Amino acid sequence: MKKKLRKSNIELLRITLIMMIISHHIIVHGLGLRYMSSPNFEVENSTYLKIILNSLFVVGVNGFVFISGYFGINFNVKRIISILVQAFFYSVTFYLIAFVTNQIEFSKASFWESFFPISNNVWWFITTYIGLYFIAPFLNAGMKNIAKTELFYVLVGLLILNCFSSFYWGGISKNGYDLFNFICIYLVGRYMKVNDLKILKPKLILLLSSTVVSVLATSFLYFNYHEYAWQQFHYNNPFLILSAISLFFIFHDLDLKYNKYINLFAQTVLGVYMIHDYPRNRRLLIELVHSLRDNFDTSLFILLLILLVVLIFLICGIIDLFRLCIFSFVSNKISNLSIIRELTRRIKAFADGRFIK
């Protein structure tokens, strides 16, 4: 059977989202916008431009979760193992690189910790997404078995808890960097897909919701409510969730045919995230941004930052393509081993409640 090709418009969205995440990290970490919540934060002329740009770029994570919800996560053991092995590979590799280049001193404890990046929360998004991946089958089953009216009430209740109780009052999900927010966005995506719902005029809605976020953040900062200014960038902000959904439908409605290069690089978005946001790599990125800021005038500095985002994506993407080739070769060799086939058969039999002598 011929393998079904993914539409390139959604794959282009994935690439756009990861580049937005890179841009968000440069603004928040490299340019220091994350310190905006501190009362000692110094407001510069460029601060308001950073707020406006971040209001657009910060929706990247919510966008990825909505895609998962809209198309649904079909639980697959090989896929979950693939993510775990990928995280293990980059965690251990970057630890060893840091040791070889004398960035750190080797210790058994820290080396051992590098073997468990999910448990150690090296990448908060990966850890949280793994949680969503495991719970997705229950969410999917619930969507199918709950009456339409009850499902609507459940979804509204969850959104109130997430986007009002939690966002404004710090309830279950204090800032949206957690499983509860992911579940809410995932369910919104499933609900819209199942009921064939769309956002009309998504470009206008994206512009308006992003404007609301930037105006609120700017206003709070102007009146010295720094904590509330930073709160506008919490992932459970209803306007940020709306922005992510609007962006999805902008790309969803694109008439873009299959493009092998777009689909090829779209495979690497998770690897791009792991590589560029590994803690030590993030510090290197911050140092690079500071160096560019100190050595170039504003106009050239902005152009260099744009180029930096593209280069980070391309370099990290190419690295992950090499990893994919190596892993694919090794995976095929391992899966063909008789001991692996026998182990798989026994696990399946155990899960089915059958006993094997």
Question: Would you mind describing this structure in some detail?
Answer:
The protein has 357 residues and is mostly helical. The protein has one domain. Helix content is 73%, strand content 0%. The chain is built from 16 helices and no strands. Helix 1 packs antiparallel against helix 2, helix 1 packs across helix 15 and helix 3 crosses helix 11. The radius of gyration is 22 Å and the shape is globular. The chain starts with 7 loop residues before the first helix and ends in a 6-residue tail after the last helix. 31% of the residues are buried. The model has no long low-confidence stretch (mean pLDDT 90).
Could you write a compact summary of the structure shown?
With 357 residues, the protein is mostly helical.
